[in-house]
Amino acid sequence: LQELNIYISHNVEPTAITDNIRDIIKYTKDLNILYVEDNTDVQQQTLKMLLSFFEKIQLANNGKIALELFY
User: Fold this and answer.
1) Which pLDDT score is estimated for 4?
2) Does the global pTM surpass 0.90?
3) What is the DSSP string of 14-49?
4) N or C: which end of the chain has fewer CB within 10 A?
5) How many whole angstroms separate alpha carbon 1 and alpha carbon 28?
């Protein structure tokens, strides 16, 4: 697995996100996560959850920063 893109809508229940992450972990544990979110409240909640599963997470506060980090 070289690349995996996951888009999570704000309308998704947190338990559904957690279940999806558990499925992903079955295939690889060394993912580099680029998490993009401009809402600081959502950022903090989701980042806390992601850090419970993964060690390598980059945070981008907007799409422009995400593109700069990704490319």
Assistant:
1) 63
2) no
3) HHHHHHHHHHHHTT-S---EEEE-S-HHHHHHHHHH
4) C
5) 8
